Structure prediction request, 91 residues.
Amino acid sequence: MLRCPECDCEFYDALEWAGHVFSCSSQWKLPYAAIEYAHAMCKRFMGCGEVCITAFAHFAQAVCHLPCKDAAYRIDPEGQGWFDNNGKWKE
Prediction:
């Protein structure tokens, strides 16, 4: 379970949490790793809202171990590797 850092709502799905924090100002209170991963994803795939939501969902899965019902937003081994490799893409 993850809570929104702004409104304290509880979330049990990575994508639901990601969409919520993206749509409110709480994204500025996110853990550093979530913000840095979003920056890395935006550099790699051209930044847009969808990329940020995906990045936040990946963070929730990789770091907080939340499940993700929507297969399109599930973290892949490359994304997991970024978190496992201390913020660097594996070669």
